[in-house]
Amino acid sequence: MRILILLTVLSLTVSPAFAQKYISWEAENYDAISGDKFEIFEAPSDQPGNAAEGVDNYTVAEASGDAFIGSPNGVGNDGNAWVKYNFSVELDNWHFWGRVIAPSVADNSIYWAFDIDDAEALSTNNATINIWDFYEQQALRENYTTDWVWFRLNTRDGPFEGTELVQHGDDPVPVNLSAGEHTLHLVHREDGTYIDQIFATTDIEFDPNETDPQTAVEPQNKLTTTWGTLKSGF
Ligand SMILES: [Ca+2]
Ligand SMILES: [Ca+2]
Ligand SMILES: [Ca+2]
After folding, report:
1. Which of 4, 45, 53, 202 has minimal CB crowding within 10 Å?
2. What are the residue ranges spanned by the domains of the chain?
3. Which residue has the higher pLDDT, 70 or 12?
4. If you measure from the C-alpha of residue 38 to the centroid of ligand 1, how many angstroms do you get, rounded to a whole number?
5. From the CA of 94, how far away is ligand 3's center (Å)?
6. Is the CATH number 2.60.120.260 carried by domain 2-231?
């Protein structure tokens, strides 16, 4: 059985769209959670819109793994609530993406940080914790939608240099990660923001909005560490 799995991964890895390395996991498959902001929703799921921003109530028709996380409008922003993911990669420059619903300027961000202690995972924008914006920049706001969109990992004002407009440009900035185990904390910022899946690849050209990673990779529960282990032997 183990050999069969290895062969399957090998065949996926050498397919043209995935000549480079990749990892992926479901947002709802976190390894730890703190606070009362983040919930898991099963698709289809009715969600409140944002009347002040002209967003009607809507239904999230589908999600990878049939589930996603977030907080409905009304629970309040910030709150120091977080989810944490453990994952393993090879040393490389990794381009991270998140599959997100962000319907308005008041429902379109989250905080993030790699390799921090739980105690540092606070709803604040500082040298440790970054804001991941989803169409916050004025030039991008015409794109607001209640559909899922893949966004490159970005920061509002660093220290990670991949600001939102940089990440939408021709020279997106990757995250350089050492070989081995890492953590990613997502910390609550704006209610009404939802996350389905996290995807990372060493392929700077790959755009999951154009090629669905799920067509090449069947999402499974927390196989990221296994994939990393298998890939390290190549
Ligand atoms: Ca915002
Ligand atoms: Ca909101
Ligand atoms: Ca999901």
Report:
1. 4
2. 2-231
3. 70
4. 17
5. 21
6. yes
